[in-house]
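Bumping with the actual sequence this time:
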Amino acid sequence: MDLLKLEELGIVPLIASKVSLGIGFIVVIILSFIICKKHGISKLSTLIFILLGYSGGIYCSMLMGDFYTFVSRMYGGGKSNVAIFGVVVGLPLVLIAASLISGKDWKKITDLFAPGAFLGLAFSKFGCFFAHCCPGIECSFGTYNPLYEKVMFPSQLCESVTMVLVVAFSFWYSLKYKKRISGAAYPITAMLYTFTRFCWEFLRYYDLDKMKHLLFGLSFWQLWCIVVFVNSCIWLLVLKNQKLTVLEEKYYTFINAHLDALKEKIKSKLPSKTKTAEDTGVNNSIS
């Protein structure tokens, strides 16, 4: 991407991009506050985890940008300041670490933030569209991109729309699906996102052709999609093999609570085992 050309377009695209990111952040906070009670997490804890998660996610995005720059420059490419894909990797790591340190249930925390994290990512792609970066290939039925001075496929908008659909599914799974596995909302959402991102990458334009055909004809980000997808599968399989579903957990919790109550009721009706000296006929008086 020609950064000098972007500067020539003026400040409006940049402001529109930042506003889109800001709106996304506000929407994530509102959504998290709405559903946090369902997960048994207070609004204060939710806000703290949002700030920690976003801070860690942005830092990981910067690291991912540096890594992309390192690979790109090996083939004569340019610099990338931020690669928002880092949020997918960095955010859950920060949330899990913060949960373990604070004594919270990391599975509930990741379930809570699965919809919001990827919704924020969807808004970031709207920001890309307004900034005219990350466009699709040149075509006759796309939108005009003033940065490249071409009609290009709106891959950013398409990715945003599919991500909104993924977020809707994540929201339903983390709150409504009775047979869901605790802690599985994030890896399932990540798997769906990386699958759709992998597909849209075929229609994405790259300034450096080598980065689009880095290995086995796949782009840099398609390879990362495969890595994240496989890791998410492993995460999901570990949870599935070791933990009960949420419905089963509720069932056994219900049964155990009633068994404890029944034990206490039976115990209260049993005669006391302690007998007095008069009952045993023993005279303990001292003459």
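The tokens above came from a reply further down the thread. The two ends are 107 Å apart (CA to CA).
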